[in-house]
Amino acid sequence: MTWPYMFHHYPKQGIDRHNVKHLPCKVRVRDMRSQDPLPSLNVEVFEIHRLKSTMSASDFVDDTKVQDIYCRELEKHFLEALGAKHVRALDYQVSTYSAFPPVGKNRLRATPLS
């Protein structure tokens, strides 16, 4: 079995950028934070983590703060949570989409259920 992959950079010549077949499908989006049990790396191939950040929502407009504070907080969290030897936050994207209110202090925004 080959796991799906997708590089966000251009790999060396001869290596495909992804092995994913894009097919249209309907998806129901729902809030997974209260799901029991929570998704796990071993079953769903992703996990949900809660991270208490020292940053406020307004701090995320400052790219230097995101790199110096938030990325370091993420690295520290995943070092401990995954028992990893090395973790490096390589890239990030800060959402400025504000159609929905934040879920709570220092938490990501959520899309309401229909």
What would you note in describing this structure?
With 114 residues, the protein is mainly α. The chain has a domain at 55-95. Helix content is 18%, strand content 0%. It is built from one helix and no strands. It has one helix at residues 63-82. The radius of gyration is 17 Å and the shape is globular. Residues 103-114 have low confidence and may be disordered.
Largest sheet: none
Distance between the termini: 36 Å
Q: From N to C, what is the helix and strand string?
A: H
Radius of gyration: 17 Å
Oligomer: single chain
Low-confidence stretches: 103-114
Q: What shape does the CA trace take?
A: globular
Q: Count the helices. How many?
A: 1
Given helix and strand content, the structural type is mainly alpha
What fraction, in percent, of the residue positions are helical? 10-25%
- Average pLDDT over all residues: 81
Please state roughly what percent of the residues sit in beta strands, choosing from under 5%, 5-15%, 15-25%, 25-35%, 35-45% or over 45%. Answer: under 5%
Count of beta strands: 0
